[in-house]
Amino acid sequence: MAVLAASASAPPNSRRQRPPRQRSTQSTRRQTRAAYLLITPFLIVFVAMLIVPLFYSGYLSLFATQLIGGQEFVGLANYLQALTDPSFLGGLGRVGLFLLIQVPIMLVLALFFALALDSSRVRGSKAARLAIFVPYAVPGVVATLMWGYLYGNDFGPIAQTFRAIGIDAPNLLANDNILGSMMNIVTWEFVGYNMIIMYAALRTIPTELFDAAEVDGASEWRVAWSIKIPAIRPAIMLTVIFSIIGSFQLFNEPNLLYRLAPNVIGNDFTPNQYAYTVAFVNQDVPYAAAIAFLLGLVIMVVSYVVQLSTQRKENLS
Amino acid sequence: MRTTARRTALSLGTIVVTAGLLLTGCTSPGSSTTDKTTVSQADIDKALDTPTKLTFWTWVPDIENEVALFEKKYPKIDVEVVNVGNGADEYTKLRTALKAGKGAPDVAQIEYQYLSSFRLTDSLADLTPYGAADLSDEYVEWVWNQVQTEDGSVWAIPQDSGPLGNLYRSDILAQAGITEAPTTWAQYAEDAATIKAATGSYISNMPGNDPGQMVGLFWQAGAKPFGYDGDKTVKVDIASDETKKVVDYWNDLIQKDLVSVDPDFNDSFYQSLASGKYAGWVTAAWAPVFLQGTAANTSGKWTAAKIPQWNEGDDVSGNWGGSSDVVLKTSENPIAAYELAKFINNDPESTLKFATDQFLFPTKTDTLADPAFVDQEAEFYGGQKVNELFAGVSDTVDVSFEWLPFMDYVYSSYNETLGKAIADKTDLSTALQAWDDEVTAYAKKQGFTVE
Amino acid sequence: MSAPTVSAPTPTAIDAPRASTPRAKRHRRQIMREGRRSTLLTVLLWACAAYFLLPLLWLLIASTKSNADLFSSFGFWFGKDFNLFTNIAQVFTFKDGVYLRWVLNTVVYAGVSAFGASLLATMAGYGFAKYRFPGGRAIFSVVLGSIMIPLTALAIPTYLLFSSAGLTNTPFAVIIPSLVSPFGVYLMRVYAAESVPDSLIEAARMDGAGELRIFWQVALRQLGPGVVTVFLFSLVATWNNYFLPLIMLNTSDLYPLTVGLAQWQATAAAGSGSQALFSTVITGSLVSIIPLVIAFLFLQRYWQSGLGTGAVKG
Predict the structure, then answer these.
(1) Over 80: is that where the pLDDT of C105 sits?
(2) Residues of the domain holding C222
(3) Does B420 contact A149 at a Cβ distance shorter than 8 Å?
(4) Is ipTM strictly over 0.85?
(5) Strand spans (E) along chain A
(6) In 3-state terms, chain C is what percent helix, strand and coil (to 5)?
(7) Residue A107 forms part of a structural domain
(8) What's the CATH number where C241 sits?
């Protein structure tokens, strides 16, 4: 099932749809009022912190700004410009590549760890679980700082190790390798997080479901493949959707690694970083807003397509 | 907790309301009324005797010590020193605060090349009404030209500078049989080959992420890549004969692998300075003490020299770095703010403290001649009087170098074009032209007339 | 500008008994499995675990080095001098001990934000799950869709709004935006739908309890584990946030650890007047992650049972 869209459209508990007949309109009204009371505090902050800035930003994106001459209404010109802007498209391509390579690796690893830990076949599994999860508690600032040192071309321990065994050390911060190095950092940070989601889901599968299969002599792998994984499909979908959003919005890691490899990363490495540069360095806030809006649109479309395609697969099978 | 909650709720209300206001009309910049009337001594005395709170944004470490001297002299003035980040980080914050119309400081540290970008947005107070023009004789000429425009207005008080010089490891050069520092660039290139062959060290590093250094070298070569008339006309001449000469020169060294192309000022760069990967560093007057702190294990092995020359017998340098202190137009206490900017950069005790404690390279002529400064012998440089050497260099910097009013973009574009070519070791002169093109296109797009 | 993966709270059923598995049976199964430990799997998994721990090991070792050793000794072994305590002292005394101030700020920002975010999310999630009201579904869709907004789109407008309300450079500028957790609302909605039986609410109504009283006194008890989870993950999100405080705060005394450490690191690249603080930054980084790691260790026991049921089946 599609995690986000489906839950947004279908009430999670269908019993609610048939209210007891004897309920009076007065109590319905009272309940409606209570519902509004409950969601209002959240909505106020939500509107003030997300919706209002978003509309303001959308409004700004319709203008062109110049250092000389000020602002001028230009309609959708900024959007048209972005669609042919090599910096924006290049960044989009890079995060697309990131999405295609890093996300599958990260999620397969997370799934493997979750299944391994769930199978109770690993000694010291509690400690291993914590070890894998701990990077999630490390701020991105610190994670990038650490990996930056480790990657160091001249004196980083990775390069030192390579040299010690007599192999030419690869420059992990060079053009060809930087995307891979960044993928490694993001994988390091978030495998544990995704693993915990999947692991939590695995713990909720009633054992009856696979005890029988195991008695029948099915291998652990077979049980995992045909019983466990299908059973936690929604959780896996959830991690997929969040990873898609996370990849497209990549900002912290390139922004912090910029210091270490300024000419390699550039300030348009990811669309989000480009939007930041346009807004704060080029001082073109309207254009930055247009880029950010287009990026949001891409995220929405991709997430939706992924959800639809998995739904169709489900319907076919 | 309850009051906190109420305040939060109130603020949220304000946000929603002001959001409406913002949606209907953008904040307009304040009208520009330049008040040229002179402030009288009585006004100044009164301002300095009135309890006032000033905010000062700067990233100079321990500048609290100089500010304390000011506060001691004018006890009614209370200065809050705030470090919001180095250079570009500070400007970003300053611009956002100015755009919002609230939260900007009274006094701020700004590097010379960024002054015109803040003049463009009409954010700086003209300091001539407070008597700043009278200070012109007290500073090195080229520095003063950076803060005063042709119409006579003064926009900042100079704090420090960075005339170019050459620091090198005498022990590594000696290993390669070189006993004297090269005096010309041609000789420098020859030495580079000798050193690389004999020791494996690079004569220097040429980072692809430091437009300031490259522009300093342009400056030394007599190039005038930028210009701004203070209104709507800019000059972009990045790809000129002089700049081509510089990039072709470095292109050659890079292609022959005689200089390294590591990004500077990150940990790997410091490691390389400490380890002897670099036998020298084409750098500025603030570097000697900086190096002393990061490469302590190589103490005594370094020597400072003048920058190599393009023509034998010349004595010309450029500048890399340095800052000034401005008074923001939004300041409610401009007189006190001006006095603060002036005092810390003009009072002899304060300027000497900058020079000897924080190692900012002085811009004031009397500090540059002060024996307490010039006679300092640095053990790190084998007892050499490094300050004396650089004090001499200060006079050899070309006095009429200008900037564009959008250097943030110019430098960011450098990293994408010329800087990238350096890092990737591709042809520099093509990249130089690309940089020129990008900057010209940006200037036109921003509504400037480009010469 | 944390990726949503960072701020998304997750339900977990760590150490929880499997749903609907009778205790005795689970125990039997556990014993049956004891004998089936796989050496291959153990070695494989621990090799991977080593990968996750290695950078932290490096951080620990690097914290014992002086600036000079940092650049001249092998990364995974100790340097000439053992400087850990000197470094820690330096971290806590540099700039009049501003580091301790940053620790306190971080604790306050993260604590208050997490408390507020979980409260708002719980109320709203319960409201969406247990009531049908005009516009409910539409509003919920909007809330959920907002996860996809790239935050750079909001950075400048949000700053301008806060500035006009006079809230920039105050703790509120960091805390208020952190109160919004759309995913927390989603999670609590799913969790409330699963874990608070309608019959329980109906029974309370029969007893004459008002709707809000039902929420506070009946439902909240059932929602406990969900709330704890949303709290924990909001805590991490705010603790690790870098971008928001970076734009909103100017005064060093208000910084959280992330911004403070990044600024110390940048001091080294200041050109004129710069200071190389590498060992201080590294040791400061080490100290900064210890509280969260301990919190996770300690609170592991509290990410309690059944959570997976509702949340992950969403």
Answers:
(1) yes
(2) 64-313
(3) no
(4) no
(5) 63-66, 70-73
(6) 75, 0, 25
(7) yes
(8) 1.10.3720.10
